[in-house]
């Protein structure tokens, strides 16, 4: 509860004990599956609680750097190498040592209305007059994929109706299309499936979790890593989200 606002901060009061605060993991990123991790820990009577901080991949890295989060979820493709995440992580963290662990691979693509009434087949169709999209914020992996595809096709952004209509997550993109606010948008298959939308796959992506090295031995992070190395948890995520979890828990980089 906010007690007093100051120019450079604020005084707050919390209803949680220090032990409850210390056993909470703040996970910044755009993966809706954080809710499943929270449920998994609760079902196993773990004292650790995961809290999602929904934001773009770039904002998640910044939250990690600013010590506003314990974990950053990232899916950012480096255009030069085609590699996922490691170059953006190095740029954001500088000399800070980190642990990068795979969470899953997923399909990113275009979602459209059920039955695909406008016969959208690829990003090339987004330049059609009158076709409306819903977009993700700058710094998100979905926005990066859209901009890269438009650039390769030679489609100017101002030709794409709805380019400036931004929402804050994969599920929000799907919700906007389901509500008739847009005809298409970039999201993951999970988002399209959740709202019964048509899905046109574009690319497979690797979603990694980034942890500052000094936090890796803390009890909450160890509990999260234990979950990621559980075959049952990996199977549950795979079944519920249609993710590829064959490499879940594997260290990508140190």
Task: Write up what this structure looks like.
Helix 3 (57-65) packs parallel to helix 4. Helix content is 32%, strand content 26%. It is built from nine helices and eleven strands. The strands form two sheets. Strands 3, 4, 5, 6, 7, 8, 9, 10 and 11 form a nine-stranded mixed sheet that branches. The longest helix is centred in the middle third of the chain and has 13 residues, at 141-153. It has 254 residues and is an alpha/beta fold. Helix 5 links the parallel strand 7 (133-136) and strand 8 (166-167). The protein folds into two domains: 2-104 and 206-253, Periplasmic binding protein-like II (D-Maltodextrin-Binding Protein, domain 2, 3-Layer(aba) Sandwich); 108-204, D-Maltodextrin-Binding Protein, domain 2, CATH 3.40.190.10. The model has no long low-confidence stretch (mean pLDDT 92). The two termini are 38 Å apart. The chain is globular, with a radius of gyration of 19 Å.
